[in-house]
Write a structure and sequence with these properties.
Layout lengths: L13 H11 L9 H14 L7 H14 L7 H17 L12 H9 L6 H15 L4 H5 L7 E5 L2 E7 L11 E6 L7 H11 L26 H14 L10 H13 L4 H8 L13 H20 L4
Antiparallel strand pairs: 1-2, 2-3
Length: about 300
């Protein structure tokens, strides 16, 4: 089974989907038919209060299972019909899409004020938080078995880079490098990465050593888990008075994009910062109040230009 489909926090367990599909079918499961798959996805949507949010993942889980198990999948005509059905269900779904709240610079500064960088736990959290924010990193990019060798220090200009071998969108070619520059401010990723290296004596460590190992002792060293990281974010956000329910590791990515848009940075700058290749970067602008203000400001300009005879 494709590792990307395995269960993890915030995603659907593909094995559970397949198990439910087999259990649901009131007819022999093999061969897979358009009717059996359609009945199952209708049932899935009904059991999830009419939400079609995860429907693509559900269909993909069943399809990948068939391909890996050498079970014939739908022919082209039936596959197209299934795709049409999924689109129709999505079109009828009026549920609000749940998006993570942005963890912005101002919030990170307040959180950092409550941390002591001289302690191992806080040094780890500071470098994780600021590296995730300044690099607009997804949790797997930050935590996915990252090693000391992934960090390269430069002296001209003062900076370090983090190599991302394979990511959600970068599937081939040389590693992507996210560069973090020195800045003479109290809070920045460069400062906290240097502090983390010094505190943990990593300057002479083997390149294969885990960069962010779990704070818990295990027989085999493992990286900090996404679940643990998410919980630390929620705790930190709650500590400065925000409801933690809408914050997760993805909030750093949304936070940087929102801050950049609010500084009137060009769209291409935001795309470069988050390695977005399409206009989906706009979806990460999560400041609804400022969005409305910007639209109103633009409308005011149109009205004033019209009155002046400029349009």
């Amino acid at each position: 089974m494709d590792a990307a489909l395995n269960a993890k926090k915030g995603t659907i367990d593909a094995k559970r989907i397949v198990a439910q599909f087999y259990k649901f079918s009131d007819a022999p499961v093999v061969p897979i038919t358009l009717t059996s798959v359609k009945k199952f996805i209708y049932q899935w949507v009904a059991e999830h209060s009419g939400s079609s949010k995860s429907l693509d993942k559900v269909v993909r889980a069943i399809k990948v299972h068939c391909l890996c198990s050498r079970i014939p999948w739908l022919d082209d005509a039936d596959a197209f019909a299934l795709k049409t059905t999924v689109h129709q269900i999505k079109f009828s779904d009026v549920h609000e899409v749940s998006r993570r709240s942005p963890l912005k610079y101002s919030m990170l500064v307040r959180i950092s004020e409550g941390f002591n960088p001289a302690t191992r736990r806080h040094a780890l959290l500071l470098v994780l938080f600021w590296t995730a924010y300044e690099g607009a990193l997804r949790s797997d990019e930050l935590l996915g078995g990252r090693s000391i060798g992934d960090v390269t220090w430069e002296t001209s200009p003062l900076s370090f880079s983090l190599s991302l071998r394979r990511t959600k969108t970068h599937r081939k070619g040389p590693p992507q490098k996210v560069v973090y520059y020195y800045h003479d401010t109290p809070n920045n990723a460069y400062k906290y990465m240097r502090n983390y290296f010094s505190l943990n004596h990593l300057w002479e460590a083997k390149s294969s050593r885990l960069l962010f190992p779990s704070l818990y002792t295990t027989k085999v060293p493992t990286s900090v888990s996404a679940k643990w990281f998410s919980q630390q974010i929620k705790t930190a956000v709650a500590g400065i008075g925000f409801s933690p329910t809408t914050y997760s590791a993805h909030s750093f990515r949304a936070g940087l994009a929102t801050d950049l848009f609010n500084t009137k940075a060009p769209l291409e700058t935001v795309q470069w910062a988050g390695r977005w290749k399409s206009l989906c970067a706009l979806e990460y602008y999560r400041d609804q109040v400022t969005r409305g203000q910007k639209v109103q400001h633009a409308l005011d300009k149109i009205r004033k230009n019209f009155i002046k005879g400029g349009v």
